[in-house]
Each structure stands twice: as structure tokens, then as C-alpha cells.
Amino acid sequence: MTDQERLAKIEEQRQKALAESNSAYDEMAKNNQDLFDYQNNSLNQYEQQQNDILDKQLQFNESKIEQQKEEARKAKEVEEKKARNDYAEFINPYGYQNESLAERGLLNSGVSETSQLGGYNAYQNRLSSANKVLQDALTQYDNDINEARLNNDVAKAQNALAKLQSQMAFAESYYNNKSNITQNRLNSNQSLDSEYNNRYQSELDRQESIRQYNDQMEFQRQQAAQEQANWEKEYALSQAKNSGSSYGGSSSSYYSQGGSGTEDLLSANGYGIIANPYTGEVNPDSKYGVFQYNKSGTGYQPNNINGRQLAKSGMTLKEFTGRTGSTGSTGINIDNQNVWELDGRYYVWDGTLNDYVDVTSYGMKSLRPPRNS
What we know:
Layout: H1 3-91, H2 96-104, H3 110-242, E1 272-273, E2 290-292, E3 300-302, E4 304-305, E5 308-309, E6 311-316, H4 317-321, E7 338-342, E8 345-350, E9 355-358
Antiparallel strand pairs: 1-9, 2-3, 4-5, 6-7, 7-8, 8-9
Helix pairs in contact: 1-3
């Protein structure tokens, strides 16, 4: 997977996570809205049911009152009928009243007329009384109906108030939940954005680290290649220079000690060991397979002899021989040159010869080292 594909994958995962989060909060918001709608619908239905009950009760009460009014009318009619019958009987010439007057000889007298007038008045009083009773009853029944209707309206108003209070409580809960859902959605999305921004940045940092590492490795490879080329050039020049020399010849003293008894211990011709590039693990004390021996950086001291890696002896030539005044092939003091070890033999690098010289025997006695073949 390429770097761009990795970044695109992180962005794809971000969008997927945000979509899933938004979907979850959309579902919560929908559930909150559904609950709010359900609560309001339930309140409306409950109020309607209660009002229907009140209306039925009112209808029942009105029906009872109308029935009572009808019964009062019938009672009035009965009373009026009785009054008419009684009056008709009273004024009947053959009735009890006239027969009684006739027996007493008062039938057509003033007493008879007065009696008839009294009977008529009684009849009218009965009619008036029956009518008043009916009117009083009707008035009371109308008042009862109005009161029932008023009570019905009051009860409905109380139902409406109770519904309003419940709606306000539900609305408060709804908007609190909605606010919480919105805030939680925002926090969740910010958290997801932050998480995936960190992942995105981490991937960019990783890619940048790899790029820098690759650039560094390429720089080191190029530098090593240049250094190797320089060393090979130096080595080729040393080989060309040494090709005209023969073993055993005498030249300037490689190792000598001042004062009397000075002796040539090593000729500059042929006592060194050719240093081929090392092909195994890089010596931790070396750089790119060689030891830098020249501050100017124009030459490098190999870290091996014939492909076999040297090891530190921990001593300089002065410490190894116990003497001072040692000089190389050009007469330059090499007391502080490091001594290297390989298979029990000890070597010192002569930069002029571009060669390692076996100095094993110098550490034991002042003898020329054996020719290395």
C-alpha cells in the first residue's frame, strides 16, 4: 500500500466513523422526537377521553333533568285535570253540591251563587298553584342543567390545564434531551476528528521519518561509495608504487631507537602486509569498512588484513615496545600509532606505505620481523 493510499485509508475510516456516530445520534434524536410526539398525542387522547366522559355525564344529567321537567309538566296537567273535574262536579246541577243546596232550599239563592264563585276561585287557585309549581320546577331544572354544563366546562378547563402542564414538562425534557444529544454529537465528532487527525499526522510523521532515513541512507551510501573510491584510488597508487620495489632492500629506517645501538629493524621495502577491503561485518571502530587515518580525509586505513578483521590491542606502539622514538618509512614519529591484533600477531599501519607492518617481535626483542609471505 502506498503512502497516499494509507492517508486515503485513514480519511476513509474517519468519514466512516463520523457517519456511524452521526447515524447513532440521528437515531437518538429521532427517538427523542418520537417520544415527544407520542407523549403529546397521548395527552390529547387522554384529554379527549376525559372530555367525552364529561360530555356523556352532562348528557345523562340533562336527560334526567329533561325527564324530571316532563314529569313536572305531566303532574301539572294531572292537577289541572283534577281541578277542572272538581270544578265541573262542583257546578254540576245534579252534583253533590247543588243537591245539598236544594235540600236546604238554597239552590237559587245568594248562597248558591257565592258557593259557585268560591268553587271557581278554588279552581283557579289550583290551576295557578299547579302552574307555579311547574314553573318553579322548570326553573330549578334549568338551573341544574346550567350548573351541570358549567361544571362540565370547568372540568374540561381543568383537563386542559393538566394537559398544558404535562406538555410543558414533556417539552422541557424533550429540549433538554435534544440539547444533550446535539452537544454529545458535537463532542463525539470533535473527538473522532482529533483521533483521526492524530492518526493522519502520525502517518505523515512516519512517512517523513522514512523519507529522512532513506535520504540519510542514500547520503551515507553515496559518501561510502565516494570514500571507497578514494581508498581504492589510494590503494591502486600504493600498489603501483610498491610494484617497483623488492623484498629485503634497504631504505630509510621504519623503526629505530635514538642513541647508540640504533638499528634498522624494518626496511620500507616489503615487510608490510597488503590490506584488502574487508568483506564481513563492519568493525564498530571503523567507518564504512575502514579506519580514517588522515585528518584531511584523503586516505583511509583498512580495518582488515586480507579480508580478516583486525581487533584493538589497547596499546600504542610506544606502549607495545616499551620504547620511544619509533619512526615510519619517512622518518615521522609513530609512537602513538595504534597496535592492532589478528591471530596472535600485532600490526601497525604505515600511511606512507599504505600497508600494515607486523611488529609482533618488536614487543619481545629488537629483531627484524619475519618476512611475511
